[in-house]
Write a structure and sequence with these properties.
The chain folds into two domains: 5-65, no CATH class; 68-150, no CATH class. It contains eight helices and four strands. It has helices spanning 13-25, 46-50, 68-78, 85-98, 105-116, 123-135, 138-162, 172-183, and strands at 5-6, 33-34, 52-57, 61-65. Strand 1 (5-6), helix 1 and strand 2 form a beta-alpha-beta unit. The radius of gyration is 18 Å and the shape is globular. 19% of the residues are buried.
């Protein structure tokens, strides 16, 4: 339902080599196992408490999962407009709705509060959640979010090419907004 799997990897180079072999064997994209998520706003130690055991492999690899509402909360807290966080939110909600197991706004809000307490979600995430829960036009919202994310990524790649080493996690949203205004 999303484009990667977030992971906390406590291991040596041997495990990372194994991860890369899995990527190659199954033709997965680079970064399919995303350890970098722990450097985003979405990471919190509370994720350990809401995750549940899924499978253990060779008594070494412990795979845990989280419920969809926590994944939505994580993607909403991150709210990266240049990745697929926002469209992933819609995709997860849409899939659950199609399966006859819709996720309510109250369930998502509870997950956000549980993981992030009083920390507010980014405005772009709040707008998306209001839109999707307001009218449930999943296909339109998903397509629109995905297109915006693709354009944002292109804008940032162009900016980075023209201004190497300027983008940081702290300035990326303002750079994106300024670049969008210039293009209009």
């Amino acid at each position: 339902m999303t484009t990667d799997a977030d992971a906390l990897i406590y291991t040596d180079a041997v495990m990372k080599d194994a991860i890369n072999r899995v990527r190659d064997k199954y033709n997965l994209p680079y970064g399919w196992l995303n350890e970098d998520f722990k450097n985003t706003n979405s990471y919190t130690e509370k994720l350990r408490g809401v995750s549940v055991p899924y499978r253990t492999v060779s008594n070494i690899l412990h795979i845990r999962t989280i419920a969809a509402e926590y994944l939505i909360a994580m993607k909403a807290m991150s709210g990266r407009q240049y990745k697929f966080d926002l469209s992933d939110i819609v995709g997860v909600l849409w899939e659950h709705d199609k399966r006859g197991n819709p996720i309510s706004r109250a369930t998502v809000d509870k997950a956000v509060c549980e993981l992030y307490e009083e920390q507010p979600l980014p405005v772009v995430s709040m707008q998306l959640l209001n839109d999707v829960f307001g009218n449930k036009d999943y296909e339109r919202i998903y397509t629109g979010a995905r297109e915006k994310e693709k354009r944002a990524k292109e804008i940032l790649l162009d900016f980075e090419q023209d201004n190497p080493n300027v983008l940081t996690g702290d300035n990326i949203d303002s750079v994106l907004e300024q670049a969008r205004r210039k293009r209009k």
